[in-house]
Amino acid sequence: MNEHGERTAVMLEALSWLGTRYHRQADVKGAGVDCAMLLVRVYVDTGMIAPFDPRPYAVEWHLHQAAQRYVEWVERHCTRFDPAEIEPLGGDLVVVWFGKCFSHGGILVSRHDVVHAHARDRAVVQGHLDHEPFVSRQLAFYRPNRWVI
Questions:
Q1: Topology of the domain covering 3-147
Q2: What is the distance between the alpha carbons of residues 118 and 102, in angstroms, rounded to a whole number?
Q3: In the 8-state DSSP scheme, what is residue 99?
Q4: What's residue 132's pLDDT?
Q5: What is the pTM for the complete model shown?
Q6: Domain ranges of the chain
Q7: d(CA 10, CA 13)
Q8: How high is the pLDDT of residue 52?
Q9: Are the C-beta atoms of residues 93 and 143 closer than 8 Å to each other?
Q10: Which of 10, 23, 45, 110 could form a disulfide with 91 if both were Cys (CB 3.0 to 4.6 A apart)?
Q11: Does the structure show a pLDDT above 60 at 62?
Q12: pLDDT(58) > 80
């Protein structure tokens, strides 16, 4: 499959999780998932990254520590890029600063639309980078290493 087909597969898989309830450290479509495990399931299940499981992880570490644990996992499989230099595409990943570090993530399904599991919304939802929780926070963009930057 070429990159376009892979990106389409990632976006469709991400969208298939819409409405799944938010549940910490879960990864069952239709039953429960959190933002970290949504990313793992989508990218692993579409074959974009090798299988791995970051669990267990502390629930609110981002409120009390500045360690970039979320980003450490992302950077094992993806490369950060500057959206001012490289256009973000569907299938890319965006991580969001909450608390003291980057600690939330989602999958782009267009340049500005992102699928993410958010505790406040209690489900996997489709949001927009120009709206909360993204607009007022620092963002970092990543691309799976199998797609050349």
A1: endopeptidase fold (from Nostoc punctiforme) (3.90.1720)
A2: 14
A3: T
A4: 87
A5: 0.90
A6: 3-147
A7: 5
A8: 82
A9: yes
A10: 10
A11: no
A12: no
**Residue with token string 């929780």:** 133
DSSP annotation of 2 reads -
- Whether the Cβ atoms of residue 18 and residue 8 lie closer than 8 Å to each other: no
DSSP labels, the chain: --HHHHHHHHHHHHHHTTTPBB-TT-EETTTEE-HHHHHHHHHHHTTSS------S--SSHHHH----HHHHHHTTTEEEE-TTTS---TT-EEEEEETTEEEEEEEESSSSEEEEEETTTTEEEEEETTSTTTTTS-EEEEEETTS--
pLDDT score of 53: 87
The percentage of residues in the chain with a pLDDT greater than 90, rounded to a whole number, is 69
Is residue 11 classed as helix, strand or coil in its secondary structure?
helix
Beta-ladder partners of 108: 114
